[in-house]
From TrEMBL:
Any GO molecular function: DNA binding
Protein name, as recorded: Crp/Fnr family transcriptional regulator
Residues of the Cyclic nucleotide-binding domain: 32-110
Native organism taxonomy: Bacteria, Pseudomonadati, Bacteroidota, Cytophagia, Cytophagales
Database matches in Pfam families: cNMP_binding, HTH_Crp_2
Residues of the HTH crp-type domain: 146-216
A GO cellular component entry from the record: cytosol
Keywords: DNA-binding, Transcription, Transcription regulation
Annotated Gene3D superfamilies: Jelly Rolls (2.60.120.10)
InterPro entries the UniProt entry points to: cNMP-bd_dom, cNMP-bd_dom_sf, Env_Response_Regulators, HTH_CRP, RmlC-like_jellyroll, WH_DNA-bd_sf
PROSITE patterns xrefs: CNMP_BINDING_3, HTH_CRP_2
Species in which this protein is naturally found: Flammeovirga pacifica
Amino acid sequence: MSEIWHMDNFDLYSILCPSKIKDYFKTNGLSFKKGDVIYFPEDDEQKIYLVSKGKVKLCNYNQDGEEVVKLILSKGEIFGEKTLLGQAKREEYAIAEGDVTYLCLLSIDKMRNLMRDNEQFGLFIYKLIGLRVKKIERRLEILVCKDAEERLLEFIKDLFDDNFNENETIKHPYSQNDIAKLIGTSRETVSKQMSKYKKQGWIDYTRTSITLKNKKALISAMD
């Protein structure tokens, strides 16, 4: 599943939100404060968004009114992309998660023109959509079937490609609060478990990276 984060052929930020073009953001951008809703379920606005600054969470609410976070996106990531597949209505809430969040807008027609003019870019976008759908489906399944510790272990494992060795380090944009929202638990639980894994010599981590030091032990804990 982590294959989606390692497709380095294209820099979406430079393509879709070109900062070198004078006044691009003034005519193609929006700004939001933390907690602002970018769009609601059933909205039919046909736009694709790219995060220029801050974070955006995609979420729904269950019958008990509890928030279920699907994804948390940071700079350079797109959302609302299912409109390219003919989806007429939004399926989730998109909410600004950073203190200040800037988004670049792209019309469906413009995106389709870019994809038509560059076949590799088009394949990249469709692959990204497919892998993201699978990632969300798997995350929701894990939320239902596993307890909090198992969900955290699964989250860590999903950050790494199967080909990485035990000393590989991966960069990530997630705070402990972000991780807690994604796996449906508290920040305190995430902090406690991450500290435990570090003491056990399974991982090392900072605010922006995780190093997997004992992959075998981590996977064994998931069995």
